[in-house]
Design a protein that fits this description.
Blueprint (H helix, E strand, L loop, with lengths): L1 H4 L9 E3 L1 H18 L2 H9 L17 E8 L2 E8 L5 H9 L15 H21 L8 E5 L9 H13 L3 E5 L5 E3 L2 E4 L2 E3 L1 E4 L12 H8 L4 E3 L2 H8 L2 H6 L2 H7 L3 H10 L3 E3 L5 H7 L3 E5 L9 E2 L5 H9 L2 E5 L4 E4 L8 E11 L2 E10 L12 E7 L11 H5 L3 E9 L5 E4 L1 H8 L12 E12 L2 E14 L33 H12 L12 E2 L8
Helix pairs in contact: 2-11, 4-5
Length: about 525
């Protein structure tokens, strides 16, 4: 079905993300949760929301929130939150298909056991939602609900969910919201009594006529609905982003300083569009993205530099927010030409404030569209488990002090590429190849870093040199230009040939520390020794 209906559902390439950035994404998710948990926030938001959003105060948390991020040159931006995020089961299936190309990559590729644990936690999540709503007996049945589900682009995922639930002893159906009837305080789909509805509708407040039976069952507490209208009001209405990016409002709500800092650094400045500000916003439009407050799937969303006057009038007449543009990342393919690059965003699937899985979406154009050859859902490979982390001595180990090496390659266009340390070692030892680097001479940066609580804390030493890749994409030390005086057999280069610019060094620092406002050491770099002394 995927091949026939969704040929661009899965991307042709993975996306690599440094561990500190993934950790920072999780911290941003936690910061959002800390704000939503505040009574003052809930009172303020729900007072302006539809009445149905004020139901279920102590009920389910909401299954499968999706926190969507852009990551470009070390800058991480939370561009929106979705409460019915699709793709989790598809990404689990994608992860099952991954195989490490070499031993060095083994630590970055998801294991089959890890995928199995993820799927088990999905089932546990729905059971937990059932019990949070007051269910005393075991959960028995789930309905996966969307408008005309067989016609939805992600319908294959509904089938995967149905199969997962049935493997765990749950009866599961896929249905439209109008396919139910309520009898004697129970919601029925044919002869099956429904305990829980996994809600994939974009009718967030169940306003449409076809949702009437579902709405009645929810209001009468005949079913558990997850995610529910309350979750959408608290998290996914785009006006929440305006609050999360407003220092004065966060301060007034009593948000903890650390959470304030995280949100202000990582939620792009967002404001509700008001006709009073029309002239100013039109003048600033090239740096803004306009989104409907209840939008989904990038529908009716516009980059400011693409706006026409007619569309601008529609925006002013509707309910929109204006968000400062944070550029998406770029995944450059083999050949490293701009025409071979796809944009990507990152989606963190989260439940009850904890990140469950992270996936990427590769695309071309204005927004993710699953219509780009080579694009679609892509696995995210993290360098976190391949940092070369070592404990330097018994004394350090007893004191809880650890160190790790972090490697970067700097190319001719001044781009900075983080490389898993284990992969670099494999390249250097001829155990792996990187065809995209074939025939190129790049600058190599190797930073030795003290860790604190498992995260980078202080750069101890920086080593810079050049590295030459052969026609097969393996490191060719014999052909690598050297600053060593006793290497007349290769090209000689100035001692500072491998050094980074101030901007490049700042970007390496941002990649390593996830954008944290830490001072960048000003000590001069230490030049590398001869290639034979490495790695």
């Amino acid at each position: 079905m995927v091949r026939e209906r969704c040929p661009y559902l899965f991307a042709a390439h993975p996306v690599f993300v440094a561990a500190p950035q993934l950790q920072r994404m999780a911290q941003v998710v936690s910061a959002v949760e800390s704000v939503v948990a505040l009574p003052a926030y809930r009172e303020q938001v729900l007072a302006a929301a539809p009445a149905i959003a004020r139901l279920g105060a102590d009920g389910p948390r909401g299954a499968f929130f999706g926190y969507d991020f852009h990551l470009d040159k070390g800058r991480l931006g939370l561009i929106e939150i979705n409460t019915n995020a699709g793709g989790a089961m598809l990404n689990a299936a994608l992860a099952r298909a991954q195989r490490a190309c070499c031993a060095a990559m083994g630590a970055t590729v998801p294991t089959l056991a890890g995928v199995a644990v993820f799927e088990q936690r999905i089932v546990e999540m729905f059971r937990h939602e059932w019990h949070l709503a007051g269910g005393t007996r075991p959960l028995a049945s789930i309905a996966i609900v969307d408008e005309t589900p067989e016609e939805q682009y992600l319908y294959p995922e509904f089938l995967l969910f149905q199969q997962l639930f049935e493997r765990h002893g749950l009866s599961a159906v896929i249905a439209t919201p109008s396919a139910f009837e309520s009898r004697d305080g129970v919601l029925w789909h044919g002869d099956l009594a429904i305990d829980l509805v996994y809600n994939r509708l974009t009718d967030f407040y169940l306003d449409q006529a076809g949702s009437a039976t579902l709405r009645e069952a929810y209001e009468q507490k005949s079913i558990v609905l997850t995610p529910d209208p309350r979750a959408h009001a608290l998290y996914a209405d785009k006006r929440r982003l305006a609050l999360f990016s407003d220092a004065a409002r966060l301060q007034a709500l009593g948000v903890a300083p650390a959470a304030q800092q995280l949100l202000l650094e990582h939620v792009p400045r967002t404001e509700v569009v008001d006709a009073v500000d029309a002239q100013r916003l039109w003048g600033e439009r090239r740096g803004l993205f306009f989104k409907p407050v209840a939008g989904f799937g990038s529908r009716a969303a516009y980059r400011g530099d693409k706006l026409t006057r007619r569309v601008w009038q529609d925006i002013l007449a509707g309910d929109y927010v204006a968000q400062a543009i944070v550029a998406p990342g770029q995944r450059v393919m083999a050949g490293h030409d701009a025409t071979d690059a796809l944009k990507f965003d990152l989606r963190a699937y989260a439940y009850d404030g904890a990140v469950q899985w992270v996936a990427a979406r590769l695309y071309q154009g204005q927004t993710t569209n699953f219509r780009t050859p080579g694009g679609g859902f892509a696995p995210v490979y993290s360098t976190g488990d391949a940092s070369g982390r070592t404990v330097s001595s018994a004394d350090d180990k007893s004191a809880g002090v650890e160190h790790a090496s972090y490697v970067f390659l700097l190319d001719e266009s001044s781009e900075v590429h983080a490389v898993p340390h284990a992969l670099y070692v494999a390249l250097a030892q001829g155990q792996a190849s990187a065809i995209a680097l074939a025939g190129r001479t790049l600058r190599l940066a190797d930073w030795y870093v003290r860790l604190k609580d498992g995260e980078p804390d202080t750069v101890i030493n920086e080593t810079y040199s050049l590295v030459r890749f052969d026609a097969q994409g393996q490191v060719d030390w014999a052909a690598t230009p050297s600053a060593h005086p006793h290497r007349p057999d290769v090209a000689s280069v100035p001692k500072d040939a491998g050094w980074p610019t101030v901007d490049e060094r700042a970007r390496m620092h941002a990649l390593l520390f996830g954008g944290r406002a830490l001072p960048i050491p000003t000590l001069p770099p230490v030049l590398a020794g001869t290639p034979e002394s490495r790695p």
